[in-house]
Structures are given as structure tokens and as C-alpha cells.
Amino acid sequence: MTNIGILGAGRVGTNLADKLAAAGHHVTLGSRSPQSDGNGLAGTPRIVLADHRTAARTADVVINATPGDTSLARMGDLRTELSGKILVDVSNATRDTADGLPGELCYPGSSLAEKLQQALPDTHVVKTLNTMLFMVMTAPETLATAPTAYVSGDDETAKKTVVGLLADLGWQSRWIEDLGGIDTARATEAMILVVPHVLRRHGFKPFAVSLSR
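Now predict its structure.
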């Protein structure tokens, strides 16, 4: 069992919290409004609602599920709480278009994950699960074609820990692609640019940007 803090109580955060708790982990779901957020998860075994700082402080592994365009400032404010820990970044930093879908990248030529690693030198940042709709993160087996979970990070031990958590979310080892260092996250974060076009044509149906061999 791992103590996991999830920062962000929206669809991504609550979906991950539910599946990781069901796998036996103790989850603290961090919210700006812990008394009202959680979408019904309050009282669920192994899930505790708290503020972001408490969720980060009490966890061994922290998942960033906050909006990507504000994640850098939010995580930077938690530098002390995140020191020495693994930060799993599943967000994409984009500016929304008029219809509310992802638009241009906030960090062209770089990535949110790289910016987080620079801002948090005492934290092991690992990027993953940012190339799919949120429901695929915890149910990859539901897609007709095997999806891919890309992994980027500078610390090999941290990546192994994250791969173990991916297995608990239902990801088979052959579906996981370790791309290398944290700088490779700029490639997977750029994949978000295809997402709004797919959604406009096909609606909000589960899919992932995957590697076929």
C-alpha cells in the first residue's frame, strides 16, 4: 500500500482516487474546497478529502491533476511538501479556445513537466497518462485497440514506482512506453494538439493517442 496524494478533485482526480483506493492504496484527495468537492467520494474507504497542502504533505507519491495552465504556480507553492517525493504529472498546459477545448501550448519548445522539474529540484517528476481522455486512465482495457501510457522522467526508481501504479490502474506492461528523461515529455504534451480536432468530429468518446507496432 502506498500513501497517495491527488491534487485536484475534478473528473481526473476523482477517477484516479477511486481506482487507486480500490487497488488498496490510501488516497488523500486534495481540493481547494474539501468540504464540498469530491463528487461523492467523501466517506469512501481509503479516501480522505483534504486541502492541497495536507494532501501533498501526508503522501509518498503525489499526482498533479490540477489544470495544466495553473499547475506550475500551484506546485511551486508546495515545494516544501513535495521535497523528496515523486510527483506524477498527468496534466496538459494549454490555453482554451472559444469552445472550451484545448488550444495552443503554454510552454512551446518545453513542457509543463520540465518546468515542474526545474521549479522542484528536490522532487522526482514523472510524466504519464496525459495522452488520453480521463476515463481511459483507469480503464485502458475498454478500448478496442490497446492504448499506450508514455512515461518520462529523470529518476529511474521513481519511474519504476509509477509503472507499478499504472499496473494497479489496469495498464499491462506491454502498453507502457518509457521514453526516457523528463525532456521527452514535451513530445507527449504536444500530442494534446490533436485532441480538440478529434473531439469536435466524434464527441466526448474514450480514446488515447497510442503507439502501434
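Strands lie at 3-7, 26-30, 47-50, 61-64, 86-89, 94-96, 102-105, 124-127, 149-153, 176-180.
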